[in-house]
Amino acid sequence: MGKIDFAKVPKFSQLPIRKDAPADSNWGVFGNDDEVGCVNFLTEDGIVAAAGLVRKGKVFRLDTPINYASPPLFDREPVKHTKKSFESYGLLGFDDLLDSYNTQEGSQWDGLGHVGNMRAKAFYNGATEDQIKGSNKLGIHNWADRFVGRGVLIDACKYRQEASRPVNPLTDEKYTLDDLKNALKAQRTELKPGSILLVRTGWMGAYLKSSADAKRAMAPLNKLKACGVEASRDMVAWMWDNCVAAIGTDCPAVEPWPWDFKDDGALHYRTLSLLGLPLGEQFVLDKLATDCAEDQRYEFMLVSVPLHLNGGIASPPNAVAIK
Ligand code: UVW
Questions:
Q1: Segments forming the whole domain that contains residue 24
Q2: Is residue 252 domain-resident?
């Protein structure tokens, strides 16, 4: 983890800096061999400053229990948890066995090997499909000890409710860039370089309140409808120009679902493959949001320790916000 001179980071309008890189990509900005992406914006100085945001000793778990979604969204497999007895050794005790564990069955960071840019036929920084398949290139392990810094909650759901324009989270409605900016203004919160953005859309709360039948009905990929943040060039330009390290949301896809896999403008492509910007989905933000509204402090220390899975595609965030 090095130091970053934030003043020297090229503006979005100056990208790409490499002639062979696709438009709107930052390939090469953190070095041609970089596999960390925008998580590079989380620096040692940033961690020390984030520790200063811990004032009352409150901890908020940001990920769902494993198997919270029943069934999991997007046709992903449920986890089978069995306890393996020590009986055969004549002992009293157990180990865990997790079968069919899909690292995206619940709360997750999408890693940089999750999706590539269809037009460039490449993943972040030009990595090829063969490299992702056959090596540990862009694996989630690159973030195993890097994902710590200043977290900022944008309670977009509350903002839209208070503006009498509530979003129905169980539809594909979007939160615009203006919504996010105005919510920040209403919260009197500033984006500083090296922040991990968390956007509360209200989806997780609405999902948890749904009946078992409704959850079953909305789980398949072609049935789910979910709100999210606007997928646009302006949105990623704003995040890049503010040196945002990652964006996590409490909805299933960060951007509204369904999104068109063939659309180059989808947020998944614009962020993961073009900017190396992690996307966080299905985060648990409601209790944190209540606390932020109570003490009017929407910033905190965020500690996330992704799985130490060499070459992993994604990971539960294993994240806490500490205030
Ligand atoms: C989708 O948009 C399908 O989300 P994920 O990142 O979980 O694949």
A1: 9-322
A2: yes
Closest atom, ligand 1, to C-alpha of 73: 7
Read off the CATH number of the domain in which 112 is found: 3.50.30.50
Q: How far is the CA of 274 from the centre of ligand 1 (A)?
A: 16
> Is 143 a member of any domain?
yes
Atom 1 of ligand 1, residue of closest alpha carbon: 253
**What are the tens digits of pLDDT across the range 176-220?**
999 999 999 999 999 999 999 999 999 999 999 999 999 999 999
**pLDDT per position as a tens digit, 80-139:** 999 999 999 999 999 999 999 999 999 999 999 999 998 889 999 999 999 999 999 999
Domains contained in the chain, number? 1
Query: Phi/psi at 91 (nearest 5 deg)?
Result: -120, 165
Pocket probe for ligand 1: among 104, 224, 267, the residue whose CB has the most ligand atoms within 8 Å is: 104
pTM above 0.90, yes or no: yes
Q: Would 147 be classed as within a structural domain? A: yes
Q: How far is the CA of 321 from the centre of ligand 1 (A)?
A: 23
Nearest CA to ligand 1 atom 3: 253
| CA 51 to centroid of chain Cα atoms | 21
CA 215/CA 72 separation, integer angstroms: 9
Listing DSSP states for 174-226 in one string gives EE-HHHHHHHHHHTT----TTEEEEE--SHHHHHHHS-HHHHHHH-STTT--B
Write out residues with Cβ below 6 Å of ligand 1: 74, 104, 110, 253, 257, 268, 281
- Residue 278 Cα, ligand 1 centroid: separation in angstroms? 12
Indicate which residue's Cα is closest to atom 4 of ligand 1: 253
Residue 64 lies in a domain: yes
